[in-house]
């Protein structure tokens, strides 16, 4: 009989997750992502005791700032956007490692100054020569920044005990060819294990909980297949428009912006086989198998849909149409809504359609995965007893109100046998006393720890583009315009018709 070690049981569970000596350099530090997500995430990690005492944060931008100005920018970002309370002791320690280097991406002298700053931090802060370079910049600049990191010696550690890593934000290209070109550029400078492609959805607790739900429980896995599942719906809906992102969004659209990465990654996690382990290589192997087995519908007109939001009312206020937004050409054919049916040619999923949809100016902000089960083959009740009974469903809510809902039939209280749909809810906020960390906290810490399971490799990226490219090419070749839809609804009529052809309908989240 084994005896539990009381010291082991009482140890601080953070210990395996505390980063060693290191620092982060953020390129594009003046952008919204850095201000609203990255800098607050760094502070929150420090506040939770997960960063080393000498952790350093270096900003690089084309601004005439001194280090104290940069510190003020970080301070304001933390005050406004941090998830954890502001503590003066945490701030003072963190601020000791702040540095700012002004310069242009093509400026050799600026990168030489950056190299000197990194060496100085090794001596002053004890960062140990370990740095991650966060490219929070448009992909068009990846090439020049990576080459500057190589030229200045920053991309290469000085000895085998040190590491240098690069973090890339999506989009990973705009099609298969550009993704391959981007991968070739980055991998010519950094080894594959040192490249971390961030899809922030993979850092969300509920997304990771898909794996726990499936593989830590005997309850669900026996029915997670075509014998019991009727179809799967994956939805990412936003109630806002494009805001000030016209320069990025026009020409990209909803399918490239969301389906190619977020939704196909969710599909892979839902549909993959159990990995041998949760090591990065084993997890990626199973996801790649799923993506390589995805089959497009033969009739892309019938089983894809795209739309643009029209002018109307949202949240009680009038809103512009997409074509009226500042910076959008009046003849733009960029879609703000996209939906597609995909099939997976494996024994587990043969005959089970996966419906993916995403859009802006929809009824509410929600991201969810709904596994909808087949109806019971026989109901031994009077026909009037089950009029309101729908299919059983397991719904994984990614955001907001993270959790899991199960819908099933239950008897209505009373003397008659009447069966109606009811739900059971699990919510993170109710089940756990600890608040879920923000996705960027988890992902930045994983980079500093060198823990890669949540980061897609270039094989996954390329497989995703192989799925989406034919759809984009079909839309372009057809010459048709996206269908207009009203704000506050759930997208164009063609999207409803797509499911109606299969005798199904979209869930109302």
TrEMBL record:
Residues 25-209 form the Glucose-6-phosphate dehydrogenase NAD-binding domain. Pathway: Carbohydrate degradation; pentose phosphate pathway; D-ribulose 5-phosphate from D-glucose 6-phosphate (oxidative stage): step 1/3. Pfam families: G6PD_C, G6PD_N. It comes from the Bacteria. Its EC number is 1.1.1.49. It catalyses: D-glucose 6-phosphate + NADP(+) = 6-phospho-D-glucono-1,5-lactone + NADPH + H(+). GO terms for biological process: glucose metabolic process; pentose-phosphate shunt, oxidative branch. Substrate binds at residues 200, 204, 238, 257, 360. The keyword Nucleotide-binding does not apply. SUPFAM superfamilies: Glyceraldehyde-3-phosphate dehydrogenase-like, C-terminal domain (SSF55347), NAD(P)-binding Rossmann-fold domains (SSF51735). The keyword NADP applies. Keywords: Carbohydrate metabolism, Glucose metabolism, NADP, Oxidoreductase. NADP(+) binds at residues 62, 104-105, 170. Residues 211-507 form the Glucose-6-phosphate dehydrogenase C-terminal domain. The active site is at 262 (proton acceptor). One of its GO terms (cellular component) is cytosol. InterPro entries: G6P_DH, G6P_DH_AS, G6P_DH_C, G6P_DH_NAD-bd, NAD(P)-bd_dom_sf. One of its GO terms (molecular function) is NADP binding. It is an enzyme of class 1 (oxidoreductase). NCBIfam families: PRK12853.1-3, zwf. PANTHER family: GLUCOSE-6-PHOSPHATE 1-DEHYDROGENASE, GLUCOSE-6-PHOSPHATE 1-DEHYDROGENASE G6PD. Belongs to the glucose-6-phosphate dehydrogenase family. Catalyzes the oxidation of glucose 6-phosphate to 6-phosphogluconolactone. This is Glucose-6-phosphate 1-dehydrogenase. It comes from Jiangella asiatica. The gene is zwf.
């Amino acid at each position: 009989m084994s005896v539990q070690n009381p010291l082991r049981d009482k140890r601080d569970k953070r210990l395996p997750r505390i980063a060693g000596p290191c620092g982060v350099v953020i390129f594009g530090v003046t952008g919204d992502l850095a201000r609203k997500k990255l800098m607050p995430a760094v502070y929150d990690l420090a506040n939770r005791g997960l960063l080393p005492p000498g952790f350093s944060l270096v900003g690089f931008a084309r601004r005439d700032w001194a280090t104290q100005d940069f510190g003020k920018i970080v301070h304001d970002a933390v005050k406004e956007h941090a998830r954890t309370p502001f503590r003066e002791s945490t701030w003072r320690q963190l601020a000791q490692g702040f540095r700012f280097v002004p310069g242009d991406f093509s400026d050799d002298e600026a990168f030489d100054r950056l190299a000197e700053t990194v060496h100085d931090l090794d001596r002053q802060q004890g960062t140990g020569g370990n740095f991650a370079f966060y490219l929070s910049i448009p992909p068009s600049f990846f090439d020049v920044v990576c080459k500057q990191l190589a030229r200045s010696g920053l991309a290469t550690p000085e000895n085998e005990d040190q590491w240098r890593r690069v973090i890339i934000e999506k989009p990973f290209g705009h099609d298969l060819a550009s993704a391959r070109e981007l991968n070739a550029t980055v991998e010519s400078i950094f080894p594959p294990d040192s490249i971390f492609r961030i899809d922030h959805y993979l850092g969300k607790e509920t997304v990771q909980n898909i794996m726990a739900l499936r593989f830590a429980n005997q309850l669900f896995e026996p029915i997670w297949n075509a014998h019991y599942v009727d179809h799967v719906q994956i939805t990412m809906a936003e109630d806002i428009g494009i805001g000030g992102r016209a320069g990025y969004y026009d020409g990209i659209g909803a399918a490239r912006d969301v389906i190619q990465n977020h939704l196909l990654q969710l599909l892979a996690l839902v549909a993959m086989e159990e990995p041998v382990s949760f090591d990065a290589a084993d997890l990626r192997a199973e996801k790649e198998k799923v993506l390589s087995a995805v089959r497009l519908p033969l009739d892309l007109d019938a089983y894809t849909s795209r739309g643009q939001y029209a002018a109307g009312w949202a949240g009680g206020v009038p809103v512009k149409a997409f074509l009226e937004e500042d910076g959008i050409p009046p003849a733009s054919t960029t879609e703000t809504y996209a939906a597609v049916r995909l099939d997976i040619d494996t024994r587990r999923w043969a005959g089970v359609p996966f419906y993916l949809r995403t859009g802006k100016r929809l009824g509410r902000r929600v991201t969810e995965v709904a596994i909808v089960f087949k109806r019971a083959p026989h109901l031994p009740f009077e026909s009037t007893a089950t009029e309101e009974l729908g299919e059983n469903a397991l719904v994984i809510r990614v955001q907001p109100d993270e959790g899991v809902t199960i819908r099933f039939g239950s008897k209505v209280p009373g003397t008659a046998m009447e069966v109606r749909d009811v739900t059971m809810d699990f919510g993170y906020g109710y089940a756990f006393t600890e608040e879920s960390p923000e996705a960027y906290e988890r992902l930045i810490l994983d980079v500093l720890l060198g823990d890669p399971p949540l980061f897609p490799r270039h094989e996954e990226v390329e497989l995703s583009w192989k799925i989406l490219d034919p759809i984009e090419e079909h839309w372009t070749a057809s010459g048709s315009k996206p269908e207009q839809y009203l704000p506050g609804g759930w997208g164009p009529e063609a999207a409803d018709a797509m499911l109606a052809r299969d005798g199904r309908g979209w869930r109302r989240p």
